[in-house]
Each structure stands twice: as C-alpha cells, then as structure tokens.
Amino acid sequence: MVRVALPANTPRPVSALSPKVSGMEFSLTPFTEIAPGIHRAVAEPASVNIGLVVGDTGALVVDTGSSPAQGRAIRAAVAHVTDRPIVGAVATHHHYDHLFGLGAFADVVTYGHTSLQASVEANADLDAELARLGVRRDELAFPTRTFNLAATADVGGRHIEIVHFGTAHTPGDAAVLVPDANVIFTGDLFEESGPPSAGPDSDLKGWPRALDGILGTLRAESLLVPGHGEPFDRDFAFTQRGELAGTWAQADYLVQRGVKEEDAYEAGEWNFPEETIRAWLPMIYAALAAEGKRPRTRLPLA
C-alpha cells in the first residue's frame, strides 16, 4: 500500500482572501504537481484536497473550497501554475468544503450531480453553517451542467470523465477520472487522513458498490486523490472498500443473531476505530430496520 506524500520542500498553507471568519482560519497551500499536468492543493478549514487538471488549451478545477472568497483564492493560485484559462470547475458533492466556493467560477462551466442543490437546501443546519463560514445564501452557486450518471470535459488534448457511481458518502458523489494520467479525484468516496466520513445523507450499504465502479477503472500505476489526506494507490483503495463492506456485513450478522444496537460494538469485530463505529451503528441499524431486519430475542429451548 502506497501513499504519495508531499515533497519535503512543499510550501505550507498561506492565507486565503478571508483569513478568519468567526475564529475559523481559511488558508490554501500552493498547488503541487502529482502527475504531469495534474496538481493538488489543500484548503483549510477542512483540509480538503483541491485538484487542478491542465491541458493544452485550458484547466479544470476539482472542488472549490468553503466560500466564494476561497474559490477566488484557488483561482489566483491556479494562475501561478499555468497560463491556461480555467474552463470548468467540478463539485464532487454538496458538502460545504467542496461546493461553497463555486460562486467564484460563475464565468465557466461548472459540473455536479443533479442532486446537489436539493441536498444543500435540505440541510436543516444550512443557515448556521453559512454563518459559521461567513457566506450569504445569495452567494451560493450550483452547477450549471448537471448529470445523473456522467459528464465529460475537455481541456485540450486531455479527456476528463466526471462519473456518479451511485449513492455512497452522499446521494450525489462524483469521481473525476483523467485516464491519460491514470489519476482519479475521488471526493470523499475515499478518505486517507482518517476513516471515511458518514452522516445522515450517507448510504453505508451502497457505498462499497459505488467504490466498485472506481476500482474497475484502476490499473497497477493508478493514483487516487481522496477528498482529505494523501494520494494513494489501488491497494489502499481495495482495502478501504473491503473495510466498508465488512462493517455493514458485520452489523447485518449481529442483527441476525439478535444483538441489539446498544450491545453491537462490544459484540462485533470492526475495521474502524470505536468512535467511528459507535457513530455509524445507529444509522446502520435504522437502515437494516427499514429492510425489515431487526434483532429478535431467541427464547431458550424448554
């Protein structure tokens, strides 16, 4: 298993255009080339990977940071890497650290799954989240080119595929594939800096199936860039897919044995830390219950 680390002399984060909002610090590292014409920067406050794909005639940004101001900082950082114009930007899913900078890209084509706007607007905590980030509702922007399954982009001599493989981390996850470079930006479908992040909008049963779509495209030399953490190879990807599938399967097995949710952590064998599993178990048990699977007490034989 290989993680591709930043070079030792990579510059550390520098302040973005909005350095602090309500005590939050916004920053952006310079872009670092991870493959020919493929670059990565890291944006705070969420340590999210920002991708840049450069072709002969243009450049595509992958994920846009946590605010329009940070989106503008990303655009300024791109100008230090290439003189090719930005021709598009992708939001890999609807969470703030990936989408809320999209307003800075109003002059280019922006890509995202058809569900993104509805998912943002369904967030009961949206106003509080916007206030925390210093973003107004009227500054939110949504993709101008939406898709259910896939879209393509061309930056000149380089074909890019933007693909939704199914519900997983969110209803509208998209991976950005650059086949000629064997690089995939996965959004939060994969995580390297910690366990995958799952919440009320996640599909923990469907997630491994969505990852199978990515895994089917991989070669031995493929490089995957997660939403958070260091780039990694296909061995890491296969391992994390197995860990996610195993978590659901273990909970399903416990339910069939009659183990109640409150006893499940101690009764099971788990692939992720205790804090993660305890947070996921209510979601998994609720999803299993929706399928008609509930723990049943087995009476002792007379």
Indicate the low-confidence ranges by residue numbers.
1-19
Please give the radius of gyration in angstroms: 20 Å
Largest pleated sheet: 9 strands, mixed
Look at the helices and sheets and give the structural class: alpha/beta
* Strand composition percent: 15-25%
| H-E order | EEEEEEHEHEHHEEEEEHEHHH
Number of DSSP strand runs: 14
- Mean pLDDT, nearest integer? 93
Written description of the protein model:
The chain has eight helices and 14 strands. With 302 residues, it is of the alpha/beta class. The strands form two sheets. Strands 1, 2, 3, 4, 5, 6, 7, 8 and 9 form a nine-stranded mixed beta sheet that branches. Helix 1 links the parallel strand 6 and strand 7. Helix 5 (207-215) packs antiparallel against helix 6. The longest helix has 23 residues, at 234-256. Mean pLDDT is 93; it is low at 1-19.
Question: Can you lay out the helices and strands and say which pair or pack?
Answer:
Layout: E1 14-21, E2 24-28, E3 32-35, E4 38-44, E5 48-54, E6 59-62, H1 68-79, E7 86-90, H2 96-99, E8 109-113, H3 116-121, H4 126-133, E9 145-147, E10 150-154, E11 159-163, E12 175-178, E13 183-187, H5 207-215, E14 223-226, H6 234-256, H7 261-267, H8 274-290
Parallel strand pairs: 6-7, 7-8, 8-9, 13-14
Antiparallel strand pairs: 1-2, 2-4, 3-4, 4-5, 5-6, 10-11, 11-12, 12-13
